[in-house]
Amino acid sequence: MGYSAALAGAALIPQTAIFLAISPLSGALVSSVDPRWLMISGILIVAVSLVWLSGVHAGASYTVAILPVALLWGASVSARP
Q1: Of 1, 18, 37, 57, which is most buried, counting CB atoms within 10 Å of its CB?
Q2: What is the pLDDT of residue 3?
Q3: pTM score > 0.90 for this model?
Q4: For 44, phi and psi rounded to 5 degrees?
């Protein structure tokens, strides 16, 4: 998309913010759901996120192409034990 290295890193800050916000809840989630299912679903959602991200083309809008992927990726990683 033509981002500089710093801008590309800054584009994924929402992923870290979601991870930090949701990860404290994963302990409660692990106690109520089998951790294997959380690991499997988390990895599959990360894979979907990466496939989605691989389809981004130059000139695409950040809010349409990158932000939803970053939020989805952050949520899926934080839910894994």
Answers
A1: 18
A2: 81
A3: no
A4: -65, -40
Per-residue pLDDT tens for 36-64?
888 888 889 889 988 988 888 888 888 88
The DSSP-derived string for 30-65 is HHHS-HHHHHHHHHHHHHHHHHHHHT--TT--HHHH
- Tokens for 36, please give them: 């294997």
Tokens describing residue 63: 């809010």
Stronger pLDDT, 81 or 4, i.e. the higher one: 4
Q: Which domain holds residue 21?
A: 5-78
Q: Find the distance separating the first CA and the last CA of the chain, reported in whole Å.
A: 33
Cβ atoms 59, 69 nearer than 8 A: no
Letter string b/e over residues 40-77, b meaning 16 or more CB atoms within 10 A of that residue's CB: eebeebeeebeeebeeeeeeeeeeebbeebbebbbbbb
